[in-house]
Amino acid sequence: MLIVDDEESITRTMQMMFEERGFTVQTACSCAEALRALGNGHKYDAVITDLNMEAEDIGLEVARAAKRATPAPVVVVCTGYANVNNARVALDMHVDYLATKPVDLDQLFSAVDRLLARRRDDPASMMRASKSALPRREI
Amino acid sequence: MSARKQVAGRQKYSRERKALVVHRDMHALMNYQTQLSAAGLVPIIARDLGTALAAMTQHFFEMAIISAQINEGGDGWALGGVFRMVFPRAYVAVITPATTVETLQMAINSGVTQVYEANKAPNEVVDAIFQELTPAHGLLQ
């Protein structure tokens, strides 16, 4: 799993919480770092990204890059600054989950577990509008 | 190729493509029914959750147009989420009174493909849906 946020306390907390649940977690503190991680061949089951980092709404670039990956990971956007414009873009690019800060971690765990389970059971379920089916993957 | 194989092939490609329309307003239902029929789909209509769920057990759908409010406020989102689980490749549209951050968040988190405002005419909604369809939705094959 890749967790992207420019606030180190958030990435560290989320990393700890997800590692406790059995995930292997990598963190990035900027969009640029996240794009490098996504671009250098790492395969992630899930990408959780903040929206506003080095620029407003730049987390959408992370989401877009993650959606282009093969197989596409579950993509979650967490933000305290959701508005109609960025939420519309997130919907149009088929982000899998939009969480508003302060994030309810139980809800987030539940959503990630559900989305990963659905993808395991039926890879096609995660391709709302993508053009290729996703292969089965292990968490 | 034998005649039997040809018939089987023709049936495969001419199978009916069905759309579920769930709205408590009969006038809206009829309008969507007309528009979808004109677009070559077989519309199955429902005015309540029970009928909609029953229809989902009886038909294979490739599209749904669901009002955000069926029996009570917001139940259309839950139905959209269930529809997405049952028909993962389908196009799911939800009709909302207004587009807000909350409705867009509900759409994303329910797995809905797109939201349209209730003041948009059914023909405009259906046109917009067909412009958005990709091969992944199956309807363009």
User: Count the helices of chain B. How many?
Assistant: 6
Largest interface, Cβ cutoff 8 Å = A-B, 25 and 22 residues
**Shape estimate of chain B:** globular
Average pLDDT number of chain A: 87
Strand content of chain A: 15-25%
- Per CATH, the superfamily of chain A is Response regulator
Structural class of chain B: alpha/beta
Strand content of chain B: 15-25%
Rg value of chain B:
16 Å
How do the helices and strands follow one another from N- to C-terminus of chain B?
HEHEHEHEHEH
Q: Under CATH, the topology of chain B is which?
A: Rossmann fold
The CATH architecture of chain B would be 3-Layer(aba) Sandwich
Number of strands of chain B: 5
The top-level CATH class of chain B is Alpha Beta
- Proportion of helical residues of chain B: 40-55%
Order of helices and strands of chain A: EHEHEHEHEH
Rounded mean pLDDT of chain B is 89
| Gyration radius of chain A, rounded | 14 Å
Q: Can you walk through the features of this model?
A:
- The complex is a heterodimer of chains A (139) and B (141).
- Chain A is built from 5 helices and 5 strands.
- Chain A has 139 residues and is of the alpha/beta class.
- Chain A has a single domain, classed as 3-Layer(aba) Sandwich (Rossmann fold).
- In chain A, strand 1, helix 1 and strand 2 form a beta-alpha-beta unit.
- The radius of gyration of chain A is 14 Å and the shape is globular.
- Chain B has 141 residues and is an alpha/beta fold.
- Helices cover 48% and strands 19% of the residues of chain B.
- Chain B has 6 helices and 5 strands.
- Chain B has a 5-stranded parallel β-sheet, with helices on both faces.
- About 4% of the residues of chain B have low confidence.
- The chains are: A alpha/beta (139), B alpha/beta (141).
Give the secondary structure arrangement, pairings included:
The complex is a heterodimer of chains A (139) and B (141).
Chain A: E1 2-4, H1 8-20, E2 26-28, H2 31-39, E3 46-50, H3 59-68, E4 74-79, H4 84-92, E5 97-100, H5 105-121
Parallel strand pairs in A: 1-2, 1-3, 3-4, 4-5
Helix pairs in contact in A: 2-3
Chain B: H1 3-13, E1 18-22, H2 26-38, E2 42-46, H3 49-58, E3 61-67, H4 75-86, E4 91-96, H5 101-110, E5 114-117, H6 122-132
Parallel strand pairs in B: 1-2, 1-3, 3-4, 4-5
Helix pairs in contact in B: 3-4, 4-5
